[in-house]
């Protein structure tokens, strides 16, 4: 009887000890509050000096960057799954592999700064403040999407974020036009804080940049506009370069071009398998040597800013958030048909659409 009781008590105690084991381990670690890291020197064009080659990362910021990048990665992988299950239709351009660009850019600017981008926009939507739920629901065309299910992958908006634009290069003139409107005159435009960011993932659709471009020094393509080329796989390098570029513009020195050298793991879009013009080995080499999430994690663990167990806990929380958002995105109702013509004209006039047959018309009264 005593042996049975002892065994039972032992099982209870062991069970209690096992549940919070990782938390006990985390709590017992002596963390560093911050650490200094060397970052790759940027290539400069028409600039006498560039961003620093060392930077300080706090534990708090490091964990925040890791969570954000991991969330974007998992969100994009979930979007891939939903697309293959036909919950997502039409164009869908994923940015997994390029997480350091989105997170580093946001870390280097202010929430009040204005951002406009091209069609590979999901990561920037998230860093600009949209929830995973709002993004995935927009991808599946549901009422709870950030554009009420009518924008899709390339047309998402948030406060101080103006898309997501489907036309290649459209964000350039649209962004410049917005700056002109704000400046009221061309003379003032030159002094407005404007950073032109080029995310160079080495391929234009299915063609290597080396084959397609006369010059792959995109940071020099502004000609008389200064530029810098940045390691876009390192979130700290992107952050410091963005801070430098933003300070440069805010000091009324004019615009600046910033090229982020990065890499996308998926093809150009979901219709592109991404392995007909590059090898699987090339993709795996980038994953194993330059993955932005792995690089940040290794830095923080080696500098005692966090533990492996702590990152595992974050991973579990992120996966749950993504799964919950995906469930919402597949069960939320689609927008009602009578709202089809809403938000097209500022004064909401009666909206009339011809159907597949020219004799059948749909009318919507706002």
TrEMBL record:
One of the GO BP terms on file: pyruvate decarboxylation to acetyl-CoA
Residues covered by the Dehydrogenase E1 component domain: 177-337
Cofactor(s) of this protein: thiamine diphosphate
GO molecular function annotation: pyruvate dehydrogenase (acetyl-transferring) activity
Record-linked SUPFAM superfamilies: Thiamin diphosphate-binding fold (THDP-binding) (SSF52518)
Keyword check for Glycoprotein: no
Pfam families: E1_dh (PF00676)
Name of the featured protein: Pyruvate dehydrogenase E1 component subunit alpha, testis-specific form, mitochondrial isoform X2
InterPro entries listed in its UniProt record: DH_E1, PDH_E1_Alpha_Subunit, THDP-binding
Keyword hit for Transport: no
CDD domains: TPP_E1_PDC_ADC_BCADC
Key words of the record: Oxidoreductase, Pyruvate, Thiamine pyrophosphate, Transit peptide
């Amino acid at each position: 009887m005593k042996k049975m009781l002892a065994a039972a008590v032992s099982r209870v105690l062991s069970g209690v000890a096992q549940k919070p084991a990782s938390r006990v381990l985390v709590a017992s670690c002596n963390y560093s509050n911050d650490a200094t890291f060397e970052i790759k020197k940027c290539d400069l064009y028409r600039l006498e000096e560039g961003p620093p080659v060392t930077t300080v990362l706090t534990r708090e910021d490091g964990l925040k960057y890791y969570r954000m990048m991991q969330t974007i990665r998992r969100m994009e992988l979930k979007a891939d799954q939903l697309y293959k299950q036909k919950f997502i239709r039409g164009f869908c351009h994923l940015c997994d592999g390029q997480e350091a660009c989105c997170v580093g850019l946001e870390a280097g600017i202010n929430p009040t700064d204005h951002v406009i981008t091209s069609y590979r926009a999901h990561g920037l939507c998230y860093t600009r403040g949209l929830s995973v739920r709002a993004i995935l629901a927009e991808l599946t065309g549901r009422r709870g999407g950030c554009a009420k299910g009518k924008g899709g992958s390339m047309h998402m908006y948030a406060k101080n974020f103006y898309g997501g634009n489907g036309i290649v290069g459209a964000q350039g003139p649209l962004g410049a036009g917005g700056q002109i409107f704000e400046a009221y005159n061309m003379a003032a435009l030159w002094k407005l804080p404007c950073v032109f960011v080029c995310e160079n993932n080495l391929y234009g659709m299915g063609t290597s940049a080396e084959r397609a471009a006369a010059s792959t020094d995109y940071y020099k393509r502004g000609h008389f506009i200064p530029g810098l080329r940045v390691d876009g796989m390192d979130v700290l390098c992107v952050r410091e370069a963005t801070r430098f570029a933003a300070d440069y513009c805010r000091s009324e020195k004019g615009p600046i071009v910033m090229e982020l050298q990065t890499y996308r793991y998926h093809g150009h879009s979901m219709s592109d398998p991404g392995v007909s013009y590059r090898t699987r080995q090339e993709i795996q080499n980038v994953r194993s040597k330059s993955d932005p999430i792995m690089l940040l994690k290794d830095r923080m663990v080696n500098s005692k800013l966090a533990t492996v167990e702590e990152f595992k806990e974050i991973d579990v929380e992120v996966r749950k958030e993504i799964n919950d958002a995906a469930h919402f995105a597949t069960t939320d109702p689609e927008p009602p048909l009578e709202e089809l013509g809403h938000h097209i004209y500022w004064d909401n006039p009666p909206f009339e659409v011809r159907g597949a047959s020219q004799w059948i018309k749909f009318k919507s009264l706002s």
